[in-house]
């Protein structure tokens, strides 16, 4: 047994040297100024882009009226420029594929008492099912806080999380001041404007996703609710608009679940899934995400609804 | 519980540690509980099926043994076969047979409402029912005596490393080992861990990365030209090899760590010089099962030439059906049967050809057969082959396989794949102890393999292809 342990340690040492050498080589070799390490796996995400900017600009010393959490739907749907125009202090912390587990970690790490009056949690069927890999990897590389990155890696015990942490360390120690990857679609306050419109010949049936909520996701939602209660902040669940063609038994099952949960937990739930007049091609840039025109209409609508429910105060532009 | 899941990375070291700490008399019961836990982590209800199959064969095995008259033995054996095949047919083939009958009747202009069962296929059902059946047959043929302890027999049926996808073991080999007093042996444990690591590399780095291309191409084959379809088919040939042989390596390695040697399941099958040789190198535990329990009882080689031909075709068709409840698998099996017979017929001719030509031809034939194994239906399989042969130079759809910006990723996966093809024979010898390298060389080789898994592994908990069988 002693021999096994000694040889095991020797093996781990040699493996770590080979791993770091390979990682370094792929990090140092660049194509179009982007390290080759980003090419080796579709889960190694770029350092930079919208997530990097969004978190770099997020000021936790400010006071907000609304902070928004959620997936790409959230950063494509809630146009913070319109909120700003109406003197509503808002910030969008949505990230690609953000799972409820990720939202929970962000809420715990960033949201403290007195930071904001309201937290909007954008939900859709995928949020109740997502494993959160895409978002976890994205956040581990791009959030400014080391402890949040560690927290995220711990929450997703997977080799890819370790790779992400190593990548983060490489960037830290390589003295790179600014990331090479920029996202030109990023505007401000966390919002991303998509200018394209969806094609007219989309076969929506191909995007049918069977609704199968995961217990981990629902459990995270309960913990988010509990955290909001602790920091005395109002939590609002919002289901963003979806193209009417996606109205099916699976989507309706999700809405039903969300409604029941909101009633049970006494939360405000604003369901825009199919309660809208948005056009599936003009106001969406793909099969499910709003484009800039759609986001503008939706943001105006939700501001009016939040004000009518007196969740945020009416202000003058 | 998948081998490539976090749960298994906790489960396995815990089981191994407790196993070696326990007194020998308690180990069988412990491994049995661990195996049932391993299986129940999928669907606890299906444990009942394994337990049912275990109880029937344990009881029937004793009855066969104590029966004096041949016809009594035969009746008990029939009971075992009917029970196991009923479980297998009921859960795996009922819907297929029912739908096939409905299609035939509809074709004949008769109306028929198809009764269908709506339940999940119990994982590994084809493997453990075959293993359990072979026990009764071996007792009937006086090859073994029945096991006295139910716990030992239950462990034989449910032993976790090989429970869900083989190798399909024989009672004669496995049961004595299960009862053995295995001590922690450094060389053996390390050798088992190395084989597991190599299996994980094959599965996570090669099979699952190639699977991305295969799925893209085979999900809409009509969007692709001949070159791309051929590329997708070759990728599938290596995906299924690395997936299944990777699973076998993990199973054999895990079992070796515990001190129990499972049978070899793959011997570099794509280096076969003929289809008969391919079947001596591919899924060996299943091929030998069919040889011993179907082919030989049908008469083996001691029948007329025509009967031999029929017997070989029957074995291959049944083998195809064993793989799945779909006509595509039957066609795959049938094609292998036909090529098997052709190779037997033209054996002397192929002997005159250089070795690499024979290997090349055999690989092309197995690849053609894989088209039907992977295609969604027979018509699609035929259309894929038509495109490959009619438009052999068309690269239509290339942009879907190598998407803009993903050329680097594509090249890295292809480099890994080519690297794998080159080192597979060396690794095969190293794993099987036929080649010895120094300690430090071992650490470097397996450290590199682990680095490959860490950096290039595909961690989406993709199930093993053979789990569906």
Detail the topology: elements first, then pairings.
The complex is a heterodimer of chains A (317) and B (469).
Chain A: H1 2-28, E1 30-31, E2 34-35, H2 49-57, E3 64-69, H3 72-77, H4 80-85, E4 90-92, H5 100-110, E5 116-123, H6 133-142, H7 146-155, H8 159-173, H9 215-230, E6 234-239, H10 249-265, E7 268-271, H11 292-308
Parallel strand pairs in A: 3-4, 3-5, 5-6, 6-7
Antiparallel strand pairs in A: 1-2
Chain B: H1 6-21, H2 24-40, H3 47-66, H4 70-107, H5 125-140, H6 150-158, H7 171-178, H8 186-219, H9 226-258, H10 275-281, H11 284-295, H12 305-323, H13 327-345, H14 347-352, H15 355-374, H16 378-390, H17 398-401, H18 407-431, H19 439-456
Helix pairs in contact in B: 1-2, 2-6, 3-4, 3-5, 3-6, 4-5, 6-7, 8-9, 8-18, 8-19, 9-15, 9-16, 11-12, 12-13, 13-15, 15-16
Salient structural properties:
heterodimer; A: 317 residues; alpha/beta; five-stranded parallel beta sheet; two-stranded antiparallel sheet; B: 469 residues; mainly alpha; 71% helix; globular
Strand coverage percent of chain B: under 5%
Question: Which regions of chain A have little confidence, pLDDT < 50, spanning 5+ residues?
Answer: none
Sketch the topology of chain B as an H/E string, one letter per element: HHHHHHHHHHHHHHHHHHH
Percent of residues in helices of chain A comes to 40-55%
Task: Report the C-alpha radius of gyration of chain A, rounded.
Answer: 21 Å
Q: How is the main sheet of chain B built? A: none
Provide mean pLDDT of chain B, rounded.
Answer: 88
The strand order across the widest sheet of chain A is 4-3-5-6-7
Extended strand count of chain A: 7
Indicate the percent of residues in helices of chain B. Answer: over 70%
Tally the helices of chain A: what do you get?
11
Assembly category: heterodimer
- Distance between the amino and carboxyl termini of chain B: 16 Å
Shape of chain B: globular
Radius of gyration of chain B: 23 Å
Q: Structural class of the helix and strand makeup of chain A?
A: alpha/beta
Count of DSSP-assigned helices of chain B: 19
> How is the main sheet of chain A built?
5 strands, parallel
